[in-house]
Task: inverse folding
């Protein structure tokens, strides 16, 4: 099955690094720094004075090819949710972009096509409603995270419950060289054609994925063309999306909105090699499409210097109690990795202390819901208070939980202290990002909640506050309250 995507219609749409943030930047390098690009070596580079590369070609990968399953295939029971997983190759010629002029901290970055294009073949991992009538018209396109050397679908892992109950389609894009190389290593037969010569191609590849989604919806999604296409990315991918929003989207208007999750203070290089970038980068305030930034406690330690006021097109949520990655996502990554053996020979990641179990997924679901409405012109997302800092350090209550920020019921009616970092583990840097959970003693829990009903009442009131604030969706509110009612006090 082969389709050609038509040309995407054109829709025009500074600060200093604090001492605390600078100290944290080294510790958080696993997500704050982009992977290095490598020189283009194998594929031919073509120079052209004319505009962009031709539209991509998409072909479906036979389900039984190679090892018989996609690398990074979801462990979610899709059939029970009325969904199906499909995988495709996308091939074409990608543009190479470059800086134009000086990039400053306000994010109003100019970029240009260099006139060089290069062959590539990558893969698209698609989760879609089995019944086309269930499709809600919105596709979430994720820049798959490669911080640990293999594709990780962070956004799908956190928000698949929302996506599947509300009828979203999801496309994960292998946009970077290390992810493509890992695919070939994991399953040489299935991914023999996958080849990305350099990360300098990544921005054009990601834009072309949106183009293919729009024009090839019948093949990729099994539906008519989508109404809205949203971009998403976490950690290192969030840094690259920051550069995409500030420099690429103005000249290649590929997406209708962006969710930038867990970024550090800066952006990512755009061309070959290491380019000078501002240490602190904000989202340009003249963006023509909405941008929602979602930050955890782990992220805020470096992101704080890039804070900016909310505008008509830019919103930021800092979610208290959360960490860069968490127990909910880790359970899925460990199950996937046990099959793929992409990281640490398939062994699960474990840390010295219990991993952060705060319910980031609830805030993530609400963020996607509001971003979708925002992109459709149905209203801006609710504001979110910043996490409270003092001299670059997160302020905490007597139990050790953060003050300020977007508040979820598990934090406002807590049974534990939730931290942004952890230690130990075989995979370097992983536990640093996974956060920690320190359960309250029985005595402390009883001091807060003399009876089980007192706890359920406090939790329900906290959930209703988050619901009223717009940071918790009704279905998640009901799930959370039912979970609290079934949770015995220590």
Result:
């Amino acid at each position: 099955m082969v389709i050609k995507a038509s040309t995407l219609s054109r829709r025009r749409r500074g600060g200093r690094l604090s001492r605390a943030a600078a100290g944290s930047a080294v510790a958080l390098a696993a997500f704050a720094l982009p992977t290095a690009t490598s020189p283009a070596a194998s594929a031919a580079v073509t120079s052209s004075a004319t505009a962009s590369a031709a539209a991509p070609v998409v072909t479906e990968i036979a389900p039984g090819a190679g090892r018989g399953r996609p690398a990074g295939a979801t462990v979610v029971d899709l059939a029970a949710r009325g969904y199906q997983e499909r995988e495709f190759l996308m091939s074409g010629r990608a543009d190479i972009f470059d800086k134009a002029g000086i990039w400053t901290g306000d994010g109003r970055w100019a970029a240009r096509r260099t006139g060089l294009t290069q062959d590539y073949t990558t893969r698209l991992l698609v989760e879609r409603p089995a019944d086309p009538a269930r499709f809600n018209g919105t596709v979430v396109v994720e820049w798959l995270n490669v911080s640990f050397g293999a594709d990780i679908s962070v956004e799908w892992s956190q928000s698949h419950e929302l996506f599947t109950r509300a009828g979203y389609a999801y496309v994960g894009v292998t946009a970077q060289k290390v992810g493509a190389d890992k695919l070939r290593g994991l399953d040489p037969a299935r991914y023999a054609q996958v080849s990305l010569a350099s990360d300098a191609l990544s921005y054009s590849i990601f834009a072309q994925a949106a183009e293919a989604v729009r024009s090839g919806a019948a093949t990729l999604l099994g539906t008519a063309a989508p109404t809205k296409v949203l971009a998403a990315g976490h950690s290192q991918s969030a840094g690259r999306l920051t550069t995409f929003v500030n420099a690429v989207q103005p000249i290649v208007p590929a997406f209708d909105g962006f969710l930038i999750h867990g970024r550090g203070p800066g952006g990512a290089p755009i061309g070959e090699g290491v380019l000078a970038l501002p240490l602190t980068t904000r989202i340009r305030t003249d963006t023509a499409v909405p941008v929602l930034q979602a930050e955890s406690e782990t992220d805020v330690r470096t992101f704080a210097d890039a804070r900016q006021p909310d505008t008509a097109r830019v919103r930021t949520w800092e979610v208290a109690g959360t960490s860069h990655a968490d127990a909910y996502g880790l359970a899925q990554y460990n199950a996937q990795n046990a099959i793929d053996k992409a990281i640490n020979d398939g062994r699960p990641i474990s840390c010295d202390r219990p991993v952060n179990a705060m319910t980031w997924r609830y805030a993530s679901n609400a963020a996607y819901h509001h971003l979708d409405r925002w992109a459709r012109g149905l209203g801006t997302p609710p504001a979110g208070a910043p996490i409270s800092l003092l001299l670059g350090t997160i302020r905490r209550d007597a139990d050790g939980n953060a003050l300020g920020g977007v508040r979820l019921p598990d934090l406002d009616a807590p049974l534990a202290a939730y931290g942004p970092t952890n230690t130990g583990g075989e995979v370097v840097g992983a536990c640093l990002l996974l956060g920690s959970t320190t359960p309250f003693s029985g005595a402390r829990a009883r001091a807060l909640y003399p009876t089980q009903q007192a706890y359920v009442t406090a939790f329900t009131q906290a959930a209703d506050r988050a619901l009223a604030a717009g940071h918790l969706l009704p279905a998640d509110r009901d799930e959370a309250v039912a979970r609290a009612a079934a949770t015995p006090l220590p």
User: Anything to note?
Assistant: The first strand starts at residue 2 and ends at 4.
